[in-house]
Design brief:
The complex is a heterodimer of chains A (405) and B (232). Chain A has helices at 2-10, 14-54, 64-67, 77-86, 119-125, 150-156, 191-194, 202-209, 229-239, 248-251, 253-291, 293-301, 306-342, 368-394, 398-403; strands spanning 57-60, 90-104, 109-117, 132-135, 145-149, 163-169, 175-186, 197-201, 218-223, 244-247, 344-345, 361-362. Chain A has two domains: 2-49 and 255-402, no CATH class; 62-242, no CATH class. In chain A, a hairpin with a 4-residue loop joins strand 2 (90-104) and strand 3. The longest helix of chain A is centred in the first third of the chain and has 41 residues, at 14-54. Chain A is elongated. Chain A is α+β, with helices and mostly antiparallel strands and 405 residues long. In chain A, strands 2-3-8-5-7-6 form a six-stranded mixed beta barrel, surrounded by four helices. In chain A, strands 11-12 form a two-stranded antiparallel ribbon. With 232 residues, chain B is of the alpha/beta class. Chain B has a six-stranded mixed β-sheet, sandwiched between helices. In chain B, strands 2-1-4-5 form a four-stranded antiparallel β-sheet, covered by helices on one side. In chain B, helix 3 crosses helix 4 (119-132), helix 3 (104-114) runs parallel beside helix 5 (148-161) and helix 4 packs across helix 5 (148-161). The two termini of chain B are 25 Å apart. Bound molecules: adenosine-5'-diphosphate and magnesium ion (MG). Magnesium ion binds at residues 48-49, 170-171 of chain B. Residues 15-16, 22, 24, 42, 44-50 of chain B line the site of adenosine-5'-diphosphate. Chain A: It is a multi-pass membrane protein.
Chain lengths: 405, 232
């Protein structure tokens, strides 16, 4: 009966209840939208890091990264590559030979990281070919062809077809200098890396470093479904038992931090919105309690004890949140699903974004666990905002209330 | 001899004792026996409501005690008191008697539900009660759809529902036209006679006073007179 009375009570002042319900709907929707939009933006950056730079998994010799020396290699690379390629959960795999070195042009010199790559495998791995802005992507067939970043080219004051010299230490600790010709200039989304990473043919670099053809310094793997990441990591241990196997979160702790901080961000944003809603709900419910002092007095007089009065007012508030929250969640979820597919084109608002490495298309997205956080916070809001008006109603003195009759 | 059902013993009530004391009720002794039909009369501000509220356990006396059917209600804890009211005392107020979102039937049934009466029994009793007050054709109307007189009759039916020993009515006819007022009083008198329920009602309406069999007059919070009469 209390449930029924409470339910009917909220419809006594339809307009007022609908305003509160709408504000809950809009609040929850807005929270979800803001969060999914920011997550879409973050996710975009993370994906770009993963897909054009890190890959999902990288495998190295355990001391390679510390020492930064190409003599710490993964052996039998070809055989291992074949095992990875045979696995249909893996989208792409590439091996690289890497050496720190110095690039010298007629005018100046700069420190670089030399990647010896198989050009064709990097097409699917980091889509390097898509970023070539001048020249071509390893099409001369010459072993000394080289791809450098636009920024580095500017710094070295070199152009396409210019000759440059790479100097580095080989595995025998001898200093090697070799001449290369710039066959292409690229411009990626990460301009700071453009200044450092230069790409050459793997075989040629191997020879210069005096590595065996089966030796490499890095194996990068892209998985098809990120949910398989951990299984593939385990699988990789079997393939490269003494390698150091790291996923993108371990490779780039700052990405991991972005993800972690987004949890906090979710709490803060939904907390602020729900706090504002709490005040709105409490205000309305207090108004409705104060309007009904005489009625509440009468209820106490005819035998409704304080616990029941408390429950009744709690229920009224709870019903209001209970109506608003699911609708807000649903509209929010629908918005995210639809916009997540169509994307939001920001280029009409801001042309500058792209130059900061942001894509102008944002695909809002929100993980399920964020919805769980929001639902949890809504429940807390519902309870918190229900308690105060109900508590206020308890403080009514029936005789005082009745005297007003 | 009939049993004492209400025993207000030397009851006083002072509002705002520390600031501007108002002695609303002073040293009142009232004995009411089972089955009586009593009017509490007096000018506005004479303490009628205050006295009724204390007898119903809605208000605590500053001094003295109220004993209802042998139970000293002035000693009961708040929740015990609410429970005592639920089972022993029916209230009818001047207005705001009913729960606006419930129909006449539900309003009357509500108290029975609070007493955990089974549904079938409850429905039957509610219908009987609404018939007794002549509202069998209004059982599904909400208070807003009923006239003032009809609302008060539902309130009487509701007050009766829990089979209380006494019904306290504070100016039940104040908002009614004289025809509805007479009608309500007739119903109350009939219930008093047939169901042996004790009625104590305050009023300052002469036509209502005439229907009582005993008239207690309050002046300035004190009993000025207490007389038996033959109702007309
Ligand atoms: N809560 C209160 N605070 C202060 N004075 C009150 C309060 N309630 C009633 N009174 C005073 O007590 C006196 C008796 O009031 P009441 O019992 O309502 O009289 P009646 O019902 O006969 O009109 C009046 O003078 C009234 O002003
Ligand atoms: Mg009064």
């Amino acid at each position: 009966m209390l449930f029924q009375i409470a339910w009917r009570n909220i419809w006594r002042n339809k307009a007022r209840s609908l305003v509160v319900i709408s504000s809950i709907i809009i609040g929850v929707w807005a929270g979800i939208f803001i969060l999914s939009f920011s997550w879409g933006m973050y996710k975009n950056n993370i994906d770009e890091s993963v897909y054009i730079q890190l890959s999902h998994i990288q495998i190295h010799h355990p001391t390679f990264k510390e020492e930064n020396d190409s003599k710490y290699t993964i052996t039998n690379t070809d055989e291992k590559m074949k095992q990875f390629q045979a696995d249909n959960r893996i989208a792409s795999v590439s091996s690289r030979v890497i050496s720190p070195g110095m690039i010298t042009s007629p005018t100046t010199a700069s420190g670089v990281k030399i990647y010896g790559i198989n050009p064709s495998s990097e097409v699917t791995q980091i889509r390097l070919n898509e970023y070539v802005s001048q020249g071509a992507y390893f099409d001369s067939g010459k072993e000394n062809e080289m791809l450098i970043g636009e920024k580095l080219a500017k710094k070295l004051k070199v152009k396409l077809k210019s000759k440059v010299v790479l100097t580095f230490t080989n595995t025998k600790s001898e200093i090697i200098s070799a001449a290369f010709r710039i066959g292409g200039i690229y411009r990626s989304k990460n301009i700071s890396l453009d200044e450092v990473n230069v790409y050459v043919q793997q075989k040629h670099l191997q020879e210069l470093l005096e590595l065996k053809p089966s030796e490499s310094n890095e194996i990068a793997i892209l998985v098809k479904d990120e949910k398989e990441l951990d299984t593939i990591k385990n699988f990789s241990v079997g393939v490269v038992p003494n390698g150091k196997i790291e996923d993108w979160k371990e490779l780039s702790p700052e990405l991991e931090m972005i993800i972690e901080s987004f949890n906090l961000y979710t709490y803060i944003i939904s907390g602020i919105i729900l706090l504002a809603l709490t005040f709105g709900i409490i205000n309305t419910m207090l108004m409705s309690v104060l309007e009904r002092i005489r009625e509440l007095g009468m209820l106490m007089a005819i035998g409704l004890n304080k616990r029941k009065i408390f429950i009744m007012i709690m229920l009224e508030t709870f019903y209001i949140t209970l109506i608003g929250t699911p609708i807000g969640l649903l509209t929010g979820w629908l918005t995210v699903t639809i916009l997540g597919r169509t994307g939001i084109n920001l280029s009409m608002f801001s042309e500058g974004l792209a130059s900061y490495g942001f894509s102008s298309m944002i695909y809002p997205a929100l993980d399920h666990d964020k919805y769980v956080i929001i639902v949890g916070m809504c429940i807390i809001t519902g309870i918190l905002s229900a308690i105060y008006p109900a508590y206020k109603a308890l403080q009514l003195n029936p005789s005082e209330a009745i005297r007003k009759i | 001899m009939a049993q004492t059902i209400i025993d207000a013993h030397n009851v006083s009530k002072t509002f705002n004792p520390k600031t501007v004391p108002v002695h609303a009720v002073q040293n009142v002794h009232v004995h009411i026996e089972e089955g009586e039909f009593v009017a509490l009369v007096g000018p506005s501000g004479s303490g009628k409501s205050t006295l009724l509220n204390m007898m119903g356990g809605l208000d605590e006396p500053t001094a003295g005690s109220v004993i209802i059917d042998g139970v000293e209600i002035t000693e009961l804890s708040e929740n015990k008191l609410i429970d005592f009211r639920l089972h022993n005392i029916g209230f009818v107020f001047q207005s705001f008697n009913l729960i606006p979102v419930l129909t006449a039937k539900e309003n009357v049934g509500f108290v029975l539900q609070l007493q955990h009466m089974p549904k079938a029994e409850r429905e039957k009793r509610v219908l009987t009660l609404l018939e007794e007050v002549g509202l069998e054709d209004k059982i599904n109307s909400k208070p807003g759809e009923l006239s003032g007189g009809q609302q008060q009759r539902v309130a009487v039916a509701r007050a009766l529902a829990s089979k209380p020993k006494i019904i306290l009515a504070d100016e039940p006819t104040a908002n009614l036209d004289s025809k509805s007022a007479a009608n309500l009083l007739d119903i109350m008198a009939k219930l008093n006679k047939e169901e042996k329920i004790t009625f104590l009602f305050s009023t300052h309406d002469q036509r209502v006073i005439k229907k009582a069999r005993r008239v207690i007059t309050l002046v300035d919070g004190k009993v000025a007179s207490d007389v038996q009469q033959i109702p007309s």
